[in-house]
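User: I want to check something. If I give you two sequences, will you return the structure for each one separately, not as a complex?

Assistant: Yes, each is folded on its own. Here is the first sequence with its structure:
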Amino acid sequence: RHIKHPGYKALVDAALNDINIEKLSQMPATLGYYGKYRGGALAGAACIAEMVKQIGCTYVTHYNGLHAGNIDWSLLLTASLLNTIGVIDYITPEPPFNKTAVGIERGYVSVLQSILERIVYTNNIDISDIDVSRLLNTIGCSVAKRTAVRATSKEGILLRHTLSMYAELDMFDFGLSEMEPDEEESAKEEE
């Protein structure tokens, strides 16, 4: 309901169909960064979308003290929801999770681009090339450590830093869940 742009809404609806939701619920978001557990792709996308919405709302409500905080919500939320859809072709669907041959050859952002283009064209989604490019740039800059894509919009900056915060929290929690009970108590005492 927050995605008003008809092309982005149609893309999200087509990309997050029942089949892909099921796939994402069984796959990690990444192999070594965050959400590296079964279901991490779907959980990560949902959590990041909610976090980015909350952070964006706070920014818009309070601005930054100098400039108006207008945000393209359709772009931001679409990018947040679809930032992990590429794992469907990038990571093998069963444990032990590994990169697929195409994932090794092309890298995540290229695989993601192919998936999004395939969804647009096979579903006859009415969306401009400019809007698809803006979406790919926004998602691409969210993985800046790996793609060297610089954020060129508020939406890209919000997604990158929200994803970074989510990833750090997720890795912290995952690290705690991997500890033995004695180690976890020691870690809590050190805080």
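And separately, the second sequence with its own structure:
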Amino acid sequence: VFEGTAKVLQPFLGVSGRLNVQADDGQALLRATGVPIVTAAGQALDGSAVVAAKDGGLSFIDIEGHAAGRRFAGGIDVSVDKRVMADIETDSIDVRDVVSLAFLPWEGRVDDAGASFADLTSKGLAGEVFVRPTLFEAGGAEALEEVVIGFGFGGDERRLNITSPGEKGVQADVVLKPRGASYDLSGSLRWPL
């Protein structure tokens, strides 16, 4: 539900107001928006944000809510040239969702890693999203704290950076680019087992 105003002739409709979202099945809503989250099946999603026009773009501030049983909060700015900058804090995040967000197509599917991932950039979007979980669930390894996860997208590539301090910390820098019918994957990875 959106409560506010819109100016039809403005970029992004010049919206200003409050957005509230609620769904019994968060994965279905996320898939409808194209987000490939794998761990939200059958779990509720609720959230709210203040939406405001900003320098010809759009700003979502004071975002807060719950998805897949996890709290999230933060902000997202979308510039007039469709550059996205986001900073989100969450209770925890699962490594499966991190990989899905970074490398699967944003078409609402979670089962096809071989599909084209040009969907974000074909919509003219580029940018960076930073996620700061209090706990990073690392797929069977010990959960990590103080992790910063960065997603970058634009041009014909996607980038993933995962950083956590300390001897048991993770450091990953991965770039994925299409190459004909396959992909080029490059980067570095330090992942304690």
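Because they were folded independently, the notes below concern the second chain alone. Residues 95-103 form the longest helix (9 residues). The radius of gyration is 17 Å.
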